[in-house]
Design goal:
Blueprint (H helix, E strand, L loop, with lengths): L10 H7 L5 H11 L7 E5 L5 H8 L3 E6 L2 H10 L4 E4 L12 E7 L7 H11 E14 L4 H13 L3 H5 L17 E14 H9 L2 H4 L4 H15 L4 E14 L10
Parallel strand pairs: 1-2, 1-4, 2-3, 4-5
Antiparallel strand pairs: 5-7, 6-7
Helix pairs in contact: 1-4, 1-8, 8-10
Amino acid sequence: MTERSKFDTVAANYASGRPDYPTALYDAVERRLGRPLAGADVVDLGAGTGIASRQLAGRGAVVTVVELSGPMLAQLAATSPGVRAVRGSATALPLRRHCADLVTSAQAWHWMDPARAIPEFMRILRPGGVFAAWWNLTHRDSEWEHEQELRIAAADPEWQRVGRGPYGDRDNEFATYPSLVVRTHEFSWQRTIPLDRHLDNLVSKSFIAALPNRDEFLHEERVILAKQFPDGYVTERFSTRMVTVNVPSIAEPAAA
């Protein structure tokens, strides 16, 4: 496979900097699934470096990941013992029919063509299975967060099209499948991390990774934030939004 991912050049930053997901999210997944994750067959689409994959495995799930980027998959394989790794695309899954109780996509579903990806996850889900997609959305309403947002916008005026645009209306993608039961969930949380890790998280964003002056931008951020946070630690705040889709039976698209 020669297709490249937007994240190939920042796989190490992604592994170091990206946040994980709150425990309450996995509790909600179990409620929607109607069983514990322990022993469940889970396929994690667009798994990246395996952040969600490891959390799922930590709750006892049997996890297979599908990831397009070779460098990201290599990071995942090095840090995720017991997780089965497959290089491939969510729109043409190299997996057999009815092999999964749960299909997940953490911070990745917006990169996928739903017209092709929905039939694929429905094909591999067992009847009664669940699809769950979620995103960490960074808060930008405190003074320092807003100032950083303005600097990002100055570097890339189109950043919000990628940085925010994909997340707000994902549940409507399932409207052509009337037998699917769609729910939305939201969780607020925060973490306090070293400045270096915050910068790794920042550069792992596709809109920062693609900047032609990326190194200069990151250097300036380091200087500014070091003055704002002299103890060397930054508190990042998030809202994690999740869409869950229950498949009570083998669903078919609505008639045109």
